Amino acid sequence: MNIIITGASKGIGKAIAEQFAGGGHRLLLCARTESTLQQTADQFRQRFPQAEINTMAVDLSDKASVLKFGDWCLQFGATDILVNNTGVYFPGSIAEEPDDNLEKMMNTNLFSAYHLTRKLLPAMKEKNAGHIFNICSVASLHAYEGGGSYSISKFALDGFNKNLRHELKSSGIKVTGVYPGAVMTDSWGDFDNSAGRIMEASDVAIMVVAAVGLSKQAVVEEIVLRPQLGDL
User: Strand, helix or coil at 131?
Assistant: First the structure.
């Protein structure tokens, strides 16, 4: 299978890529930082020699770069699985956050998924098959203190996901929204998770791979994961 994962060099994206690499698939991975992306790719090539790992460093906050990445992906054929994972998080409140917070996060968290999906969809529709995962957040589901423009961008991604699911029902293409709560990624800085208060990125990855394994007549529309003790 051709599996495209954005923001694949660390965190949830890397964990999802690791799960699929273990299955011996062809992975098309992107991230903003070339060195980190290549380090991840080298790790996977050593651990999963049966998988084919291809990479492209790209800034998906820029539409032209998104379309360039999409063209590169299409050289490998139609997409079987697309994971729109790339995103950025800047905490703040609507009244007091920096003036460009909303633009920065909408460009990365929403528009990257929108433009890449549109680029890849014609080939997927021609096959009448495929699965698109949009990595949203519990911040897509409710407002919270300090969410600000991040939560706005994730609400927007949820809207994109729901409309995409509706439009593609009869196409054979599945659409799944993924809504994780707190996950141990770089966003948490030096948070001490020794007590296991928040989830591991692998928890999300396991659920994504499980959703792929259903029969063609079934789709998991939403995956909501929270820490056992609830949201922070």
Answer: strand
User: Are 113 and 84 a contacting pair, CB within 8 Å?
Assistant: yes
Q: Tell me how many domains the chain contains.
A: 1
Distance (Å) of CA 225 to CA 85, 187, 218: 16, 17, 20
Rounded to an integer, what distance in angstroms lies between the CA atom of residue 226 and that of residue 155?
17
- Angstrom distance (rounded) from CA 148 to CA 91: 7
Task: Specify the pTM.
Answer: 0.95
Does residue 230 lie within any of the structural domains?
A: no
Could you read off the pLDDT of 199-229 as tens digits, one per residue? 999 999 999 999 999 999 999 999 999 999 9
Residue 200, in any domain of the structure: yes
112 falls within a domain: yes
CB-based contact 29:10 (threshold 8 Å): no
Question: Whole domain around residue 180: which residue ranges?
Answer: 2-225
Residue 175 included in any domain: yes
Q: Domain with 70 in it: what CATH number? A: 3.40.50.720
Indicate the DSSP class of residue 78. Answer: S
Cα-based distances in Å from 172 to 136, 215, 219: 22, 11, 10
CB 101 within 8 A of CB 153: no
